[in-house]
Amino acid sequence: xxxxxxxHTQVAISQLIWDRWQLDFLFKxxxxxxxxxxxxxxLHQFIETKFKQxxxxxxxxxxxxxxxxxxxxxxxLQIWDTAGQERFRSVTRSxxxxxxxxxxxxxxxxxETYNALTNWLTDARTLASPNIVIILxxxxxxxxxxxxxxxxxxxxxxxxxxxxxxxxSALTGENVEEAFLKTARNILNKIESGELDPERxxxxxxxxxxxxxxxxxxxxxxxxxxQQCNC
Length: 231
Ligand SMILES: Nc1nc2c(ncn2[C@@H]2O[C@H](COP(=O)(O)OP(=O)(O)OP(=O)(O)O)[C@@H](O)[C@H]2O)c(=O)[nH]1
Ligand SMILES: [Mg+2]
Prior knowledge:
Elements: H1 8-22, E1 25-33, H2 39-48, E2 61-70, E3 73-82, H3 89-93, E4 101-107, H4 111-115, H5 117-128, E5 133-139, H6 151-160, E6 164-167, H7 176-193, E7 205-207, H8 209-216
Parallel strand pairs: 1-3, 1-4, 4-5, 5-6
Antiparallel strand pairs: 1-7, 2-3
This protein binds guanosine-5'-triphosphate (GTP) and magnesium ion (MG).
The site of guanosine-5'-triphosphate (GTP) has 20 residues, from helix 2.
Protein backbone atom coordinates (compact mmCIF):
# COMPACT_ATOMS: atom_id res chain seq x y z
CA UNK A 1 0.00 0.00 0.00
CA UNK A 2 1.21 3.49 -0.74
CA UNK A 3 1.75 5.75 2.21
CA UNK A 4 2.33 9.47 2.14
CA UNK A 5 5.98 8.73 2.87
CA UNK A 6 6.32 7.42 -0.65
CA UNK A 7 7.77 10.08 -2.87
CA HIS A 8 6.66 10.65 -6.45
CA THR A 9 9.93 9.10 -7.55
CA GLN A 10 9.24 5.92 -5.56
CA VAL A 11 5.78 5.67 -7.06
CA ALA A 12 7.19 6.19 -10.55
CA ILE A 13 9.83 3.51 -9.99
CA SER A 14 7.22 1.00 -8.70
CA GLN A 15 5.15 1.69 -11.81
CA LEU A 16 8.17 1.10 -14.03
CA ILE A 17 8.94 -2.22 -12.33
CA TRP A 18 5.30 -3.32 -12.58
CA ASP A 19 5.20 -2.37 -16.28
CA ARG A 20 8.39 -4.25 -17.04
CA TRP A 21 7.10 -7.37 -15.30
CA GLN A 22 3.60 -7.45 -16.76
CA LEU A 23 4.06 -6.17 -20.26
CA ASP A 24 5.14 -7.71 -23.50
CA PHE A 25 5.68 -4.33 -25.11
CA LEU A 26 5.43 -0.62 -24.60
CA PHE A 27 4.62 1.51 -27.67
CA LYS A 28 4.97 5.25 -27.94
CA UNK A 29 2.04 6.81 -29.83
CA UNK A 30 1.29 10.33 -31.06
CA UNK A 31 -2.02 11.99 -31.80
CA UNK A 32 -1.49 14.71 -34.40
CA UNK A 33 -3.59 16.91 -36.68
CA UNK A 34 -5.13 20.38 -36.91
CA UNK A 35 -6.62 22.26 -33.97
CA UNK A 36 -10.21 21.35 -33.23
CA UNK A 37 -10.14 18.04 -35.12
CA UNK A 38 -10.93 16.20 -31.88
CA UNK A 39 -7.56 14.71 -30.87
CA UNK A 40 -7.98 15.27 -27.12
CA UNK A 41 -11.56 13.97 -27.24
CA UNK A 42 -10.38 10.81 -29.04
CA LEU A 43 -7.72 10.18 -26.41
CA HIS A 44 -10.19 10.84 -23.60
CA GLN A 45 -12.75 8.47 -25.15
CA PHE A 46 -10.07 5.77 -25.51
CA ILE A 47 -8.84 6.08 -21.92
CA GLU A 48 -12.00 7.00 -20.01
CA THR A 49 -14.60 5.54 -22.45
CA LYS A 50 -16.58 8.75 -22.32
CA PHE A 51 -16.87 11.97 -24.29
CA LYS A 52 -14.85 14.87 -22.98
CA GLN A 53 -17.31 17.73 -22.56
CA UNK A 54 -16.00 21.31 -22.96
CA UNK A 55 -12.65 20.32 -24.41
CA UNK A 56 -10.29 23.30 -24.62
CA UNK A 57 -7.39 23.71 -27.02
CA UNK A 58 -4.43 21.68 -25.81
CA UNK A 59 -1.53 23.76 -24.55
CA UNK A 60 1.63 22.05 -25.78
CA UNK A 61 1.27 18.34 -25.10
CA UNK A 62 -0.85 16.10 -22.88
CA UNK A 63 -0.22 12.51 -21.97
CA UNK A 64 -2.31 9.40 -21.44
CA UNK A 65 -1.70 5.66 -21.28
CA UNK A 66 -3.66 2.44 -21.41
CA UNK A 67 -2.75 -1.23 -21.33
CA UNK A 68 -4.39 -3.25 -24.10
CA UNK A 69 -4.41 -6.85 -25.20
CA UNK A 70 -3.58 -7.27 -28.86
CA UNK A 71 -3.07 -10.63 -30.50
CA UNK A 72 -2.48 -12.26 -27.11
CA UNK A 73 0.17 -9.71 -26.15
CA UNK A 74 -0.07 -7.21 -23.32
CA UNK A 75 0.93 -3.82 -24.64
CA UNK A 76 1.05 -0.48 -22.91
CA LEU A 77 0.27 2.44 -25.18
CA GLN A 78 2.00 5.60 -24.08
CA ILE A 79 0.12 8.32 -25.92
CA TRP A 80 1.16 11.92 -26.49
CA ASP A 81 -1.73 14.20 -27.45
CA THR A 82 -0.26 17.23 -29.20
CA ALA A 83 -1.65 20.74 -29.68
CA GLY A 84 -2.79 21.46 -33.23
CA GLN A 85 -2.39 25.23 -32.97
CA GLU A 86 0.53 26.61 -34.98
CA ARG A 87 1.96 28.56 -32.03
CA PHE A 88 2.78 25.28 -30.23
CA ARG A 89 4.37 23.63 -33.24
CA SER A 90 7.98 23.88 -32.06
CA VAL A 91 7.06 22.37 -28.67
CA THR A 92 4.97 19.55 -30.11
CA ARG A 93 7.56 18.66 -32.73
CA SER A 94 10.03 17.88 -29.97
CA UNK A 95 7.78 15.01 -28.82
CA UNK A 96 7.69 13.21 -32.18
CA UNK A 97 11.03 11.49 -31.92
CA UNK A 98 10.93 7.73 -31.81
CA UNK A 99 7.14 7.32 -31.91
CA UNK A 100 6.10 3.87 -33.11
CA UNK A 101 2.54 4.80 -34.05
CA UNK A 102 0.36 7.82 -34.72
CA UNK A 103 -3.26 8.78 -35.13
CA UNK A 104 -3.41 11.46 -37.81
CA UNK A 105 -6.71 13.21 -37.20
CA UNK A 106 -8.86 15.50 -39.35
CA UNK A 107 -12.47 16.62 -38.97
CA UNK A 108 -14.83 15.31 -41.69
CA UNK A 109 -16.81 18.59 -41.40
CA UNK A 110 -13.73 20.76 -42.06
CA UNK A 111 -11.91 20.64 -45.38
CA GLU A 112 -9.27 22.91 -43.88
CA THR A 113 -8.22 20.19 -41.44
CA TYR A 114 -8.16 17.67 -44.31
CA ASN A 115 -6.02 19.93 -46.52
CA ALA A 116 -3.42 20.18 -43.76
CA LEU A 117 -2.86 16.40 -43.68
CA THR A 118 0.13 16.38 -46.05
CA ASN A 119 2.06 18.73 -43.76
CA TRP A 120 1.30 16.66 -40.67
CA LEU A 121 2.32 13.53 -42.50
CA THR A 122 5.66 14.97 -43.60
CA ASP A 123 6.38 16.04 -40.02
CA ALA A 124 5.53 12.59 -38.65
CA ARG A 125 7.69 10.72 -41.13
CA THR A 126 10.67 13.04 -40.89
CA LEU A 127 10.61 13.80 -37.15
CA ALA A 128 9.31 10.55 -35.64
CA SER A 129 10.54 7.79 -37.92
CA PRO A 130 10.11 6.84 -41.60
CA ASN A 131 8.73 3.50 -40.32
CA ILE A 132 6.08 5.05 -38.09
CA VAL A 133 2.72 3.25 -38.41
CA ILE A 134 0.00 5.82 -39.04
CA ILE A 135 -3.76 5.57 -39.04
CA LEU A 136 -5.75 8.36 -40.64
CA UNK A 137 -8.84 9.18 -38.55
CA UNK A 138 -11.70 11.14 -40.10
CA UNK A 139 -13.25 12.28 -36.83
CA UNK A 140 -16.76 13.64 -36.02
CA UNK A 141 -18.37 10.85 -38.02
CA UNK A 142 -21.56 11.61 -36.07
CA UNK A 143 -21.87 14.96 -37.91
CA UNK A 144 -22.56 13.39 -41.29
CA UNK A 145 -25.00 16.16 -42.31
CA UNK A 146 -22.18 18.73 -42.13
CA UNK A 147 -19.65 16.57 -43.94
CA UNK A 148 -17.12 18.36 -46.20
CA UNK A 149 -14.85 15.38 -46.94
CA UNK A 150 -16.20 12.14 -48.39
CA UNK A 151 -15.15 8.72 -47.16
CA UNK A 152 -13.99 7.80 -50.66
CA UNK A 153 -11.75 10.83 -51.08
CA UNK A 154 -10.05 10.26 -47.74
CA UNK A 155 -9.63 6.54 -48.30
CA UNK A 156 -7.89 7.28 -51.63
CA UNK A 157 -5.57 9.71 -49.84
CA UNK A 158 -4.87 7.04 -47.24
CA UNK A 159 -4.10 4.44 -49.89
CA UNK A 160 -1.78 6.76 -51.82
CA UNK A 161 0.11 7.58 -48.63
CA UNK A 162 0.21 4.07 -47.15
CA UNK A 163 -1.96 4.92 -44.18
CA UNK A 164 -4.63 2.85 -42.52
CA UNK A 165 -7.97 4.64 -42.43
CA UNK A 166 -11.07 4.81 -40.26
CA UNK A 167 -13.81 7.34 -39.68
CA UNK A 168 -14.27 7.86 -35.95
CA SER A 169 -16.50 9.64 -33.49
CA ALA A 170 -15.07 10.72 -30.17
CA LEU A 171 -18.66 11.66 -29.28
CA THR A 172 -20.30 8.25 -29.77
CA GLY A 173 -17.09 6.26 -29.36
CA GLU A 174 -17.49 4.64 -32.78
CA ASN A 175 -14.19 3.21 -34.07
CA VAL A 176 -12.13 4.95 -31.38
CA GLU A 177 -10.81 1.82 -29.68
CA GLU A 178 -10.46 0.22 -33.13
CA ALA A 179 -8.16 3.03 -34.30
CA PHE A 180 -5.70 2.53 -31.44
CA LEU A 181 -5.89 -1.27 -31.55
CA LYS A 182 -5.50 -1.48 -35.33
CA THR A 183 -2.33 0.60 -35.09
CA ALA A 184 -0.94 -1.50 -32.23
CA ARG A 185 -1.77 -4.71 -34.10
CA ASN A 186 -0.02 -3.45 -37.22
CA ILE A 187 3.12 -2.61 -35.22
CA LEU A 188 3.06 -6.07 -33.61
CA ASN A 189 2.72 -7.71 -37.03
CA LYS A 190 5.72 -5.74 -38.23
CA ILE A 191 7.75 -6.81 -35.19
CA GLU A 192 6.81 -10.44 -35.82
CA SER A 193 7.68 -10.24 -39.52
CA GLY A 194 11.01 -8.58 -38.69
CA GLU A 195 10.08 -5.38 -40.53
CA LEU A 196 10.34 -3.44 -37.26
CA ASP A 197 13.19 -4.01 -34.84
CA PRO A 198 12.34 -3.08 -31.22
CA GLU A 199 16.06 -3.09 -30.42
CA ARG A 200 16.74 -0.23 -32.82
CA UNK A 201 17.29 3.09 -31.11
CA UNK A 202 14.26 5.35 -31.41
CA UNK A 203 11.92 2.58 -32.55
CA UNK A 204 9.33 3.77 -30.02
CA UNK A 205 9.03 0.17 -28.85
CA UNK A 206 10.30 -1.33 -25.63
CA UNK A 207 10.22 -4.94 -24.53
CA UNK A 208 8.56 -5.78 -21.24
CA UNK A 209 9.91 -8.66 -19.15
CA UNK A 210 7.00 -10.84 -20.15
CA UNK A 211 8.28 -11.12 -23.73
CA UNK A 212 11.88 -11.35 -22.57
CA UNK A 213 10.92 -14.32 -20.35
CA UNK A 214 9.36 -16.00 -23.38
CA UNK A 215 12.39 -15.27 -25.52
CA UNK A 216 14.58 -16.92 -22.89
CA UNK A 217 12.46 -20.07 -22.75
CA UNK A 218 14.08 -22.99 -24.56
CA UNK A 219 12.46 -23.98 -27.83
CA UNK A 220 9.62 -26.43 -27.46
CA UNK A 221 8.62 -25.16 -24.04
CA UNK A 222 6.57 -22.29 -25.42
CA UNK A 223 3.34 -24.25 -25.88
CA UNK A 224 1.12 -21.47 -24.64
CA UNK A 225 -2.59 -21.23 -25.01
CA UNK A 226 -3.30 -18.72 -27.72
CA GLN A 227 -5.23 -15.82 -26.21
CA GLN A 228 -8.22 -14.31 -27.92
CA CYS A 229 -7.53 -10.93 -29.47
CA ASN A 230 -9.95 -8.24 -28.34
CA CYS A 231 -9.69 -6.06 -31.39
N1 LIG B 1 -19.75 16.14 -32.77
C1 LIG B 1 -18.49 15.85 -32.42
N2 LIG B 1 -17.74 16.80 -31.84
C2 LIG B 1 -16.47 16.48 -31.49
C3 LIG B 1 -15.92 15.17 -31.72
N3 LIG B 1 -14.66 15.16 -31.27
C4 LIG B 1 -14.43 16.39 -30.79
N4 LIG B 1 -15.50 17.20 -30.92
C5 LIG B 1 -15.59 18.62 -30.56
O1 LIG B 1 -14.60 19.32 -31.29
C6 LIG B 1 -14.00 20.35 -30.50
C7 LIG B 1 -12.48 20.18 -30.47
O2 LIG B 1 -12.14 18.96 -29.82
P1 LIG B 1 -10.67 18.71 -29.20
O3 LIG B 1 -10.56 17.28 -28.88
O4 LIG B 1 -10.40 19.66 -28.09
O5 LIG B 1 -9.77 19.10 -30.45
P2 LIG B 1 -8.17 18.98 -30.55
O6 LIG B 1 -7.89 18.34 -31.86
O7 LIG B 1 -7.62 18.35 -29.35
O8 LIG B 1 -7.73 20.51 -30.64
P3 LIG B 1 -6.28 21.14 -30.20
O9 LIG B 1 -5.97 20.64 -28.83
O10 LIG B 1 -6.46 22.62 -30.26
O11 LIG B 1 -5.30 20.68 -31.23
C8 LIG B 1 -14.66 20.28 -29.13
O12 LIG B 1 -15.67 21.26 -29.07
C9 LIG B 1 -15.28 18.89 -29.08
O13 LIG B 1 -16.45 18.88 -28.32
C10 LIG B 1 -16.77 14.20 -32.34
O14 LIG B 1 -16.39 13.04 -32.60
N5 LIG B 1 -18.04 14.60 -32.67
MG1 LIG C 1 -6.34 18.90 -27.92
